[in-house]
Amino acid sequence: xxxxLNHVAIAVPxxxxxxxxxxxxxxxxxxxxxxxxxxxVTVVFIELPNTKIELLxxxxxxxxxxxxLERNPSGGIHHVCYEVEDILAARDRLVETGARVLGTGxxxxxxxxxxxxxxxxxxxxxxxxELEQV
Amino acid sequence: xxxxLNHVAIAVPxxxxxxxxxxxxxxxxxxxxxxxxxxxVTVVFIELPNTKIELLxxxxxxxxxxxxLERNPSGGIHHVCYEVEDILAARDRLVETGARVLGTGxxxxxxxxxxxxxxxxxxxxxxxxELEQV
Lengths: 134, 134
Known about the structure:
- Chain A has one domain: 2,3-Dihydroxybiphenyl 1,2-Dioxygenase, domain 1 (Roll).
- By secondary structure, chain A is α+β, with helices and mostly antiparallel strands.
- Chain A has helices spanning about 15-25, 65-70, 85-95; strands at about 5-10, 30, 35, 40-45, 50-60, 75-85, 110, 115-120, 130-134.
- Chains A, B: It catalyses: (R)-methylmalonyl-CoA = (S)-methylmalonyl-CoA.
- Chains A, B: One of its GO terms (biological process) is L-methylmalonyl-CoA metabolic process.
- Chains A, B: One of its GO terms (molecular function) is metal ion binding.
């Protein structure tokens, strides 16, 4: 069912400093910061040859990463995102096996403009999993 | 400097259960478990089209993931591994910029039989980073 690893998301307290670390210390190709007010984050893409890292900074008081950053003030790996071809079929299969889909269970349009779902970390070894239909 | 994302490592308390989750719930291709006594872990590779996830279970009393699993009893994302062409050049560049290399600073032979180094999470937004020479 799952296909490519679309991205690894790392929540950071200071996007400018984190971007500089990836660009200058690790020598990676980095994008301009992209505010996503609908998703409560500003994102920088670290473009690797086979996938990408997304650095997330909180945007606004209701950012979905605020609680994570309170628990992890220096930042940390927030989630992994796997691609699926058919998100509704994926959702139905997951629910059938007893895995919990976060929120209403209906896909939302994610930060890349595509349907996404998040799965409960407790059902996936403490790992928050995003599925994105591509 | 950094190239491909070689793998994302997820520490898990129960490798058999975690493997079943990836195989049966997420429908991914999984390897047989591979004990790595020299590295204190047993590994299952989740083979995605563009990279891999490594599920790590502690092997032995001195496993390097024991402390992590004590803090995160249901498991969690342990580290990300980036490929580099020349690990000594990478190390020297990192040290020059003030980043801390864990251990002696000399590369060790990692679980894939290639030279690796680990970088201090505090210098990389709370993320443990492994570099592997490929």
